[in-house]
Write a structure and sequence with these properties.
The complex is a heterodimer of chains A (324) and B (318). Chain A is α/β, with parallel strands linked by helices. Chain A has eleven helices and 13 strands. In chain A, helix 4 packs across helix 5 and helix 5 crosses helix 7. With 318 residues, chain B is of the alpha/beta class. Chain B has ten helices and twelve strands. The chains are: A alpha/beta (324), B alpha/beta (318).
Chain lengths: 324, 318
Amino acid sequence: MLDVKNLQVSFKLGRKRLDICSDVSFSLHQGKVLGLIGESGSGKTVTCKALLDLLPENADIEADHLRFRGQDLLELKQSEFDQLRGTEMVMIFQDPVGSFNPVKTVGWHFRHAGKRRQDGFSSKREMMKAAEEALRQVEIGNPMEALSKYPHQLSGGMLQRCLIALTLFCKPSLIIADEPTTNLDNLVERQIIDIFDKLRHEIDASFIFITHDMVIAEQISDEVAVMYAGQIVEHGNTAEIMANPRHPYTKALIRTARELEGDVEFLTEIPGDVTSGLELRDKCRFGPRCPLHEESCDSHIEMREIEDHGLVRCIKAHISENQA
Amino acid sequence: MSSILEFRDTVVTFKSGSGLFSRLGGRDARSFNAVDHVSLNVRKGEILGIVGESGSGKTTICKAALGFHSISGGTITEDGKPVSSNDGSLQMVFQDPLSSLNPRQTIARSLEVPLRLSHASKDKIDHRIDELLGDVGLSSQFRNRYPHELSGGQLQRLAIARALATNPRVLFADEAVSKLDVSVRAQVLNLLKKLRDRYNLTIVFVTHDLHVARFLCDRIAVMYFGKLLELGPTREVYNNPCHPYTTELLGTLNKGRMLQASTRDIFNPLTDDVRACRYLSRCQHVMAECHELHPEQRSCGPDHSVACYLYDHKELVQ
């Protein structure tokens, strides 16, 4: 359905060029959920915005191909892309308040989106019925009331649910959700995650779910891709990676998440921080923080396939857990 | 353990619509108690976690102790004396380290400002800066850098160092790790725990992350719309939550259980009755007295108290 091959994104800043993502490749099948995990600055949002052509002017996107349902997105004209974005491919942003027009009602947003929907509606009544249906899907008890409200009259969780309903209403085949729960409280976060979990079984769209939380990714995704400093470092089946991570960075992330759930005196730290990896173009970017680092790591490292597991960008990935 | 900071019946009120334009427009002033008659003691050397959703008043109560908000009822005392906000014995670390530092001051200069309050000599201050940086695990190379040159984790360490500069007795950390990346979060959490052990520091840790609270805190206070609902030792609260809200909140940690999306309205401070129990509209166990008055704190276990009428009727508690 979606096939990304060798995507590179860089920003021009004056005379300098800043590489944000390099060598990002993944493919996503119909109806599957990909969890894209990474810290801030790892390039996960930039990757997704590149797919939707939402990056600012100074961004430079290069790729072997970005194929979406057989079309190469890079070859599309601007007008053709505009047709696709918001109907076939949609994105849910982190901040629900900023995604709505504050002086228009929620219903207005649905009417606006409805005009763009490709199959169209024969009547206004039919459109509103579809809107109510979408709101019911995200467990809003009284859709008529929600449609008549202005964004400031709804709570953050309600608004995020309305936004999800709005994207469902467009009947897209690809939904990208960029940390949709980060700004929300625990209880609301849990509700939203449960709604996503339910939706992915109910509707036939593919999801890319961006998060930095391993626990959330584990619950709702079929496969996960872990990003670090602009590269995907591990990609494979969720259950397999959670149980048996191969890349040292993934291992550390999962260990910390597990330790917080259990009872420990001190947490295991990863020394240093992500900025140490950004300048290392042709070396292992996790190198400066890696416990297994040695000289042979300082060369260009390709993703390598590990049987029954997935792709890992580490030359020591074959070393099993007890040896490491 | 002796208590170091005590909130007794503390009230912080926010008013809306009391400004000139509202009065000219003939609108009524409305007020809301962001912290509503909260009694809480902080013990020496402990890490007290305050958990709750946004709007529960957990930050407000900390800011009230530091004098950022004036209290409109009750008392806040430090060792029996009313808190004074200018002696540096209470310090706060904020959520966003970048905006709490002056972008045009070097790291050394940022740390120097609070140190000069002690009127120490220049050499001593210089020495102390290195000591503080060492305490939070930063090398003295950072002295001449500017905040924008540091990463989020380093900035948060710096913010902690600056809070420690005045040798505080109580450190308030307001969501100090929620803006940090997962891989550096562990570093800062461990740091806070180590600092507590090294200096016998008392820490009040405000968070909405229940995993973090369980890892770091000795005792947990659960707040909901200005009210303290439950207070007890961490292990006790997590294993044996007494208030229905705590049970609901901790239920989010249980991955297996699907949470019923709550279609019931949450408490609305401007329209709902503020005398009744705050949790009334979401509670499953509503009784007649719940509509009358918000319950007082009552004991429900060793060192464990809860504000809920359920504990007057022992037979109802499973």
